[in-house]
Amino acid sequence: MTAADERVQDYPFNRPEGLDLAPAYGAARTGPGMIRVQLPFGEPAWLATRYEDARFVLGDRRFSRALAAERDEPRVQFHRGSGGILAMDPPDHTRLRVLVASAFTVRRVERLRPRVREIADGLVADMYASGSPADLVEAFALPLPVQVICELLGVPAADRHLFREWSDGLLSTAALTAEEFTRNDQELSAYMAGLVAQRREAPADDLMSALIAARADDVERLTEQELVELCVGVLVAGHETTATQIPNFVHVLLTRPDRLAELQADPDLIPAAVEELMRFVPLGATSAFARYATEDVQVGSVLVRAGEPVLAAIGSANHDETRFPDAEEVRFDRETTAHLGFGHGAHHCLGAALARVELQEAIRALLTLSNLAEAGDPVWKTQMLVRGPRTLPIAWEA
Amino acid sequence: MTWSISVDTTTCLGSGICAGSRPDIFQFHGSYAEPITDHLEPDEDVLDLADTCPAAAILIRDESGAELAPRP
Q: What residue spans define the domains of chain B?
């Protein structure tokens, strides 16, 4: 290793506005692959920028998430939440994950597709009724996943105004005071604990009731706090990312009329389009959730020493030319679809199958709006862990 | 009593959850997971992983050939 390779670069690279991947990633991929970075808070870390290296780090058990709790984890937020199952390693992680994961398998989620389609079509009908133009985020992108996850989990969708604010607070990179962050965290947990208490009295056909029953069966397996944290995690992770990706995908399509026309001509391409857009859109404003090496591990050209943290740059990995030729092009005919948009390994997105169904049905429903176009520039979120439009004005013909 | 285990590579989505959780049973090969051995001692955690594989690609049978996981 040369001195140049050890240079520590300030991170994150990406600007929050827009969906561009910073040029520094391309330079790192074609250069050393593994580079040293310093985030606003925490210790310096390795950043894996190539596909093979990023996937390896995410998928190998020798890299631990749980160790991060004992260290000054590299991060963009000053505050550190509990992290839930994303802060755990197997087998503890597996014990909790499987309780929730059975509700999110491909088989189970396909049964929800008709309901997702009904909600999406209903929102489009409302948009027609209210008339063009509209803000895609408020009129469609947010209400669709909120409604779906609320019904699945057992949270009243009418409470959206309450939990949206708490949820944004958890994912915000804005400078909340310690008091504000803690209060936000506690209010959301207290709200969820209240719902759990109600469901315990009056069980329903939803995931929250299933988790309550699992705890009743085996109190050793799931503590009350874990139960509440799982529900909070499902609610927050279950809508925020999808609500952000819907306008991101629409923005990419509306700024590439050829691709939009291709989908309009052949809606059977929608599943392939969703995979390609998951690959193409670098959602994260930063890489997060560092993995700590539990022993010396060779990653690409670098020997990562035991105790060193490694971040996987998913957006960069998904634009690696050695894995995805013409990576900067949006193409619906790729042979390789194994993108890392949902992560990889033990912490691979729990809700990936549900997200796929929602994104597919969202695009299908929105394509029924004739002559869909952007009616103004998107206003981008600037202080969130995920990137996407805060508002996206769209117009269509009645 | 041992169980048999297989991964259907035509349905495996390559999430890496199984190999990332139980590298003693599964390994990642190319874009797909595969079991390291055809047989294993009874293990509830492996049944759980098979039940919750996002692609339902992990099949576990008992000695009589009866399907143990994924459970519906």
A: 3-62
